[in-house]
Design a protein that fits this description.
single chain; 6-stranded mixed beta sheet; 10 strands
């Protein structure tokens, strides 16, 4: 079973940037679709972005034009480049993957915390 580990979070001022990483314990080349989710205190987990094996991306409306998802199969790592950060982007960010059938590939990990504040 593949496991994912998120990193790259931190404290940043509004308008700033961060790049999150999602490192897999094994190959991601054949993972059908990979995802970034986030969860703010008191809120449900919400989809931020996803990317298919072929590189097709999808974004939540709230992050379109500001965030970019990518994957490096050679490094078994997925990324989330976050620009023009806003206080409402403050949350714990999580990654995971799925195949066309079946559930999530990994249990949800600890995530990486992103705080956008002046």
């Amino acid at each position: 079973q593949v496991q994912f580990e998120e990193s790259g979070g931190g404290l940043v001022q509004p308008g700033g940037s961060l790049r999150l990483s999602c490192a897999a314990s094994g190959s991601i080349a054949n993972i059908w679709r990979m995802y970034w989710y986030r969860q703010a205190p008191g809120n449900e987990r919400e989809l931020v972005a996803s990317i298919t094996k072929g590189g097709v991306t999808n974004y939540a409306d709230s992050v379109k034009g500001r965030f970019t998802i990518s994957r490096d199969n050679a490094k078994n790592t997925m990324y989330l480049q976050m620009n023009s950060l806003k206080p409402e982007d403050t949350a714990d960010y999580y990654c995971n993957g799925r195949q066309p059938t079946g559930g999530w590939l990994d249990n949800w990990g600890q995530g990486t915390q992103v705080t956008v504040s002046s």
